Amino acid sequence: MESRDVERLLARYTETGTPASALRLHRAIEALGAERSEDAPTDGPGGGRARKVSVSMPQELTAAVRQRVGSGEFSRYVTEAVARRLETDLLVELVALLEEEYGPVDEAALAEAEALWPDAD
Hints:
Order of helices and strands: HHHHH
Strand content: under 5%
């Protein structure tokens, strides 16, 4: 799921009534977009704007990534992994907000959805 998909989902949710916590989550997503637009343009992964950062990672992990993708694709690999994690974190927060406002998903509805997508994990 792309960030714009999460933003569309939040926009649809906010149209139906926004609790304060959903508004904070929406503002956090907007802030991430604003921060990206302030970065200097480069030929970074994904062809968008990028900012060089320094992170510390265990040597074994960096060696495994380099072995898998080569040093030229290291940044793209890490960027995609971080983007997936951020999207997952935001979706988990959105689910918590929805459950807080509307309660847990009805078991019958969940069973129906699982029957429609038997291959889903």
